[in-house]
Amino acid sequence: MAPSASDKLILVRVKVERAKKHLIDLEKGIIPYRGKSIWIGIGEPNSQTGQPSGGRIRLPVIPFDSLAAAGDVIQNLRSALDHLAYQLFTVGSPGQVPNRRLCFPISDSAKRYEAEKALKVEGMREDAKKFIDSLKPYQGGNEPLWTLHEFNNIDKHKFLLSQGPVVLCEAAWMGTEAAYPYYILQSGDPNFAGIFGVETNDELDPTSEEAICKAAFSRVNAMLPTLSELCEYVEILLPKFLPNLE
Fold it and tell me: Is the pLDDT of residue 16 over 80?
C-alpha cells in the first residue's frame, strides 16, 4: 500500500522531533551556567608588575556541549526540510531517481534563488514548486528559513555557533592537566547575542497563514529563544505541505 500524505510527513517530522529533543537537552545543560562568568587577564604580563598589559575582562562561561547541541538542533531542522523536498519529489516523479542537487531551496538573494532553484526542485509537482516560491526562501524574503540555512552552513563548515564574539568554554573531556581550564573561543559572525534573551511579543500569530508566508520572526538573536522559534516555525510549516504530498 502506498504511503499517505500523512505517512510521508511523519518521516519528515522525525527530524523535527529530534531537533526538539536536542533543544531540551541544551536547555537543561545550560541553565546552571546562567550568569556564570570569570575575570581573565588579557595581553602579555607586565615585566615589573606581572599584571596583564591589557587589563582584565569578564567573559561568560559555557559548556562546549551546549554549542554542539545548538548545531544539532539546526542540522536536524535543515535536514527536515531536505527530507520534505525528497518526499515532494517522490510524489511528483514516482519511481524515479532524483538528481544529486535535490533539496529544499534556500538562497542568499532573490536573484540567486531564481537562478538556482530549478535543479533543486526538479521532479516536484508544480503546486509544490509554487508553494515553495510563495515562502520566498531567501535572505530578505524569509528570515527564519535564511537564518536556519545560514547557521547550518556555518556550523557544518566553519565554526561552532557561539553566544558572543569571545566566551570561555569548558568540557570534562578537556581534562584537568591544562594550565588554564577553559578554552577561549573567539567566534566569527554571525553569532548569538547571549543564551537566554528576553521576553518578546510577536506581532503575528505563528499558526496563521499570514505568519507562515510573511515569516514573522522576533529577531531576539539569543540562542535558546532563536532555536525555539526555528523549531516552532518548521513544525508549523510542514503540515502546510500536506496537499502537495497527496
Answer: yes
How far CA 186 is from CA of 65, 129, 162, 237, in Å, comes to: 16, 41, 9, 35
With contact defined as beta carbons under 8 Å apart, do 183 and 170 qualify?
A: yes
3-state secondary structure string across 80-136: HHHHHHHHHHHHHCCCCCCCCCCCCCCECCHHHHHHHHHHHCCCCCHHHHHHHHHCC
- pLDDT score at 181: 79
Cell 545550560, residue located: 30
pLDDT in tens, 175-198: 765 556 788 888 766 667 767 765
How far is residue 230's CA from residue 104's CA, in Å, rounded to a whole number? 16
* Chain centre to alpha carbon of residue 25: 15
The candidate with the shortest Cα–Cα distance to 76, out of 137, 119, 15, is 15
pLDDT at 102 over 50: yes
Bond preceding residue 190 cis, omega within 30 of 0: yes
| pLDDT beyond 50 at 63 | yes
Q: Which residues contact 102 (CB under 8 A, 6 or more apart)?
A: 85, 86, 89, 119, 120, 121, 122, 123
